[in-house]
Amino acid sequence: MKHHSVLKVAGLGAAIVVAAGVLTSCAASGAGDNEGKAEGSSTLRVTLANHVWTDIVKEKISDFEDESGLTVELTQLGEDQLSDQYNVKLNAGSDEIDVMMYRPLQEGKLFAENGYLADLTDRTADGGDWDFDDFQAGPVEATTYDDKVVGVPTITEQEVLYYRTDLLEAAGVEVPTTLDELEAAAKAVSEANPGVAGFVARTGKSAAVTQFSSYLFSFGGDFIDKDGNSAIDSPEARKAFEYYGGLLHNYGPENVSTDMSWPEAAAIFAQGNAAFYTDASSLYKNLTEAENSTVSDSVGFAPFPEGPEGSKPYNVPSWALGVNAASENQDNAWKFIQWATSPEMTLEIQQAGVPGARDSVWANEEGTASFPADLAKAVAIGSETGVGYDRPLVKSVAEAREIVGMPIVVAITGGDMDAAIAEAHEGFQKFLDGEK
C-alpha cells in the first residue's frame, strides 16, 4: 500500500484528507485497526506548530511515508492552540500524540518535570549517520533536562549586532567588537547624526529579558546561581542592567517607550532612525528586504560584542521535537524525528531560510548561501560561544520574566537602580522558592 498523510488544521473540526483515496486504501489494508495504540502501529500522530519549518516538512512527509511504510496523521496548530492542546492531553496522560513540537525554553522544564517527554538519551547516543554530536552545544543544552536528552532542536536563533554601514562609514567608526566600543560608537554616530538614535533594542519589561540575557552572560552574570537562587543582585548583573538600560537612556530614541518588543524596535531601525540594534538573527529579513526597510541596502551584521567575560550571546532552539512519554508508538516516533532532523532535511530547510541546529550545515556553503555572508559568519561565531538559554529556566516563564525585567525598565528611565534590583531580587527569590 502507498501510505498518505492526514492533516488536521486548527479551526477545522474534522481531518482533511490531503491525498485522494487514503481512507479506502487504509481500510482495505487494515492499517487503521489499532492506530497509535500498539508499539509499531502503522499510523503515527504528529503535532506541529504553525511555522515555516512545518510548512517545508509537511511538503516532504510523503517521502517519509514511502520510506518507512507509515501513515502520518499531522495536526498543525497555532502557538496558543498548541499550548491548550498540550495542557489538556498531556495533563490527562493521553497517548493520542506521538511526536510533539514544543518550545524548550518556554515549556521544556515544565514538560520534563511533569514526565511528559520521553527520555531520548539512549536513542541519541546510538544515532549512527544521524549523528547527535553534530548538533550545536547551546540548543542541546536547552533540550536536556537532568542529564537526560528529552528533545531534538529544530530551529535556532542567536543574538547578533545589526548596524548601519553608511552611518558608520560617514562617522569614521569601526564596527564594534566589544561592549565598550559599542557604547562609544553609539555615542559618536548619534552625535554626528542629530535625530538618529545611536542604539535601539527591546524595552518592554518582559520582552527585553531574552535580548538582555546576552549582555548579562557577557558581563559574567546569570539569572539563577548554581544553588538555584536568584542571581540578579550580583555585581555582574547590576553592571549588565546599567549598561543595557544606559545605552537606551543615553543614546536611544527620543522619548523612548518602555513597552517595545521586537516589532517596534526593529521598525525604528528599519525606518533609518537608529545606528545599532541587537536582536535575534531570525529577524534579519525585516531589515534587509526593501518592502520592510528603508535602509535595506545599508544593513550590516556582526557577532555580539565582547563583554568582560567575552562574547556570550544566547544560542537557543526556539522549537524542538520530542516524543510523548505516554505514546505507545515511540519507536516510530523516533524514526520520524530522525528523518525530520537528518542532515539532509536540515540542509534543505536551512536553504529555505530557516536556521537549523547542525554544525555541519552551517559549515556547508550550500547551508549558508541563502543568508547574508556577514550574518552567516556572525551566527557561526555565536553558535560556538553562545549560551543555550535566554530567560530564566523555570516552569512559569512568563511570570519570571515580568519580575527580572523590572530593573531593565528602571535603568532605561534613569530611576533608582538600588531599589529596583533589591525589589526584583526579593521577588524573584520568592518566586523560585515557590517553584521548589
TrEMBL record:
Keywords of this entry: Signal
Pfam families according to UniProt: SBP_bac_1
PROSITE patterns: PROKAR_LIPOPROTEIN (PS51257)
Ranges that cross the membrane: none
Signal peptide: 1-27
PANTHER family: ARABINOSE-BINDING PROTEIN-RELATED, DIACETYLCHITOBIOSE BINDING PROTEIN DASA
Protein name as annotated: Carbohydrate ABC transporter substrate-binding protein, CUT1 family
Species per Swiss-Prot/TrEMBL record: Mycetocola miduiensis
